[in-house]
Amino acid sequence: MKAYPIGKRSIRLEKDESVAVIDQRLLPFKYKELRLRSCADCAAAIRDMAVRGAPLIGAAAAFGLFLAAKRASDAGWKDYLEAKAAELRATRPTAVNLSWALRRVLRACALAAETEDRASRFTSVRAAIADAARAEAIAIADEDAESCRMIGVHGLPLIEEIARRKGGTVNVLTHCNAGALACVDWGTATSPIYAAHMSGIPVHVWVDETRPRNQGASLTAWELGERGVRHTLVCDNAGGHLMQHGMVDLVITGADRVCASGDAANKIGTYLKALAARDNGIAFYVALPSSTFDFGIDDGLAEIPIEERDEDEVRYAKGLSGRRLKSVLICPKSTRASNYGFDVTPARLIDGLITERGICKAERSDIARLFPDLANKTDI
Q1: What are phi and psi of 108, to 5 degrees?
Q2: Rounded to whole angstroms, what are the CA distances from 189 to 162, 263, 286?
Q3: Which CATH code fits 11-144?
Q4: Domain residue ranges of the chain, discontinuous segments joined by +
Q5: Which residues are catalytic?
Q6: CB 235 within 8 Å of CB 269
Q7: Which of 73, 197, 218, 255 has the fewest CB atoms found within 10 Å of its own CB?
Q8: Which residues pair with 359 in a beta bridge?
Q9: Domain 153-370 in this protein, CATH class
């Protein structure tokens, strides 16, 4: 297996203007990069989960719209890009970063088309909007990498304090994959863990397998191992037991959407971890960049759309058999399955939100304190 190139971003614009991404469907058994050359390629990569994780989905969508802008016409570019944005938006309904990134690129294209000074530098409107879309997509990727790095900076003191108080290894439990693979770099939930590891703090991660797609087992365990972070894989239902027996010091998860009141949608099973953490007096934090906030939603349970995926993800399990990846049926053929991709953790169960600007409480006033420039906007 080719080692993961630490420091190499999970999405990159190549010299030939194709978009390079890691095919996460093949991990941890095979490392392979895909080259996305059209908006349709980007949409398929998001829909089929070759790329996944809210921040990475947003970046992939932005680059997808850039690839579409290169093919637009001078006269009908606006309707064309709106249609392509709708196709990208329909791929995954829960992660708000996707629509956020698309709005940013569409605004950048509109400004480029309307600005005479900018348009005069190019031979056509299409060239102007393609240049604007390229710059905006790169900016989105760069900003995500820096935001995730800063999440680590602000989350590190939480782990440092536990290490000082405890005087030994800090045990962190996380859920799904909110690592560098789910973002452009660093990750959200993993960023404080990587910062602690790089600082020499002894840290150990309990990795939930995260059924049905097993992103914890296949992705989180892999990238932690590639970075030399101690970790142990556990079944999804083991978290409560570990907490009851004092084997967890801190829970950090990522998020796909956090509403204005602090309710957070994340991979299915996160809510159960929050309940167990509260019952056992263990701090539960959600790590996210500001692009994951949805300030247009107040009640996460009622308003955040929950993606329902193919039932066969539950009915079948994928693994390595010899040298081949195989799917095997794990239930009677006649058994139907339900496959909700996400659940919502109420703000009352969240001890804090770790963001690129610092840590805030999961409540409207404190989120607004940290993000006064964004809290009153519903179209960011």
Answers
A1: -65, -40
A2: 17, 17, 7
A3: 1.20.120.420
A4: 11-144, 153-370
A5: 256
A6: no
A7: 73
A8: 354
A9: alpha beta
CB 262 within 8 A of CB 361: yes
Phi, psi for 230 (deg, rounded to 5): -65, 135
Looking at residue 380, what DSSP letter applies?
Answer: -
pTM, to two decimals: 0.94
Closest by alpha carbon to 282, among 244, 313, 325?
Answer: 244
Helix (H) or strand (E) holding 154: helix 125-166
Nearby residues of 2 by Cβ (< 8 Å), 6 or more positions away: 31
β-bridge partners, 158: none
Sheet containing 293-294: give its strands across.
Answer: 293-294, 257-259, 264-267, 342-345
More confidently predicted of 263 and 1: 263
pLDDT tens digit string along 225-279? Answer: 999 999 999 999 999 999 999 999 999 999 999 999 999 999 999 999 999 999 9
- Only one residue has tokens 């993606």, namely 307
Give me 279's structure tokens.
Answer: 């019952």
Report which DSSP code applies to 340. B
